[in-house]
Design brief:
The protein is α+β, with helices and mostly antiparallel strands. The chain has two domains: about 70 residues, no CATH class; about 70 residues, no CATH class. Helix content is about 50%, strand content about 20%. The protein contains four helices and five strands. A three-stranded mixed β-sheet has the order 1-3-2, with no helix packed on it. Strands 4-5 form a two-stranded antiparallel sheet. A hairpin with a 2-residue loop joins strand 2 and strand 3. The two termini are about 50 Å apart.
């Protein structure tokens, strides 16, 4: 497939190829063809020196490409992966809310079983366990609403 793509480039005398997949900016020239990879328009940034950007290109003059850098958040792993998890969870909920409810219910049941196992071993008072479980439930509902319920303004 790649060889066919390269043959098409030679056949039509391409001088510039625009690509967008990685969440960063990368530019290189190979066999006289300039490759511009631009994917920094809002997704999580994947490399250390990434930044949000867009390109302005003149089609009548291929060498005239202006890269405009936008304000970008600090690129750290915790923020990046927490944003990815939030994005994935929201997309998953939008696609199939019933499955998400079942996954959450299974996760809560698993935690509940682990807590019961610990409780039985340690023989802590039942009222402490009940209060603790209630607090977890309240927090889970509050957090679920923050993440998935749309606020009307």
């Amino acid at each position: 497939m790649i060889r066919l793509y390269l043959k098409v480039q030679v056949q039509y005398n391409l001088d510039t190829v625009y690509l967008s997949y990685i969440h960063s900016y990368y530019e290189y020239t190979k066999d006289g063809v300039r490759y511009l990879i631009s994917g920094g328009a809002g997704a999580e940034l994947l490399t250390k020196n990434s930044y949000y950007h867009y390109l302005i290109a003149r089609t009548d003059y291929a060498d005239r490409i202006t890269r405009v850098q936008l304000p970008s958040p600090a690129n750290n792993y915790i923020a990046r992966y927490s944003a990815t998890v939030k994005l994935f969870a929201k997309a998953m909920y939008e696609e199939n809310p019933v499955a998400v409810v079942f996954i959450i219910a299974a996760f809560i049941l698993l935690i509940l079983l682990l807590v019961v196992k610990v409780y039985i071993r340690r023989k802590q008072p039942l009222d402490t366990f009940g209060r603790w479980l209630g607090d977890i439930g309240k927090y889970a509902v509050k957090r679920f609403r923050e993440l998935f319920c749309k606020k009307s303004t």
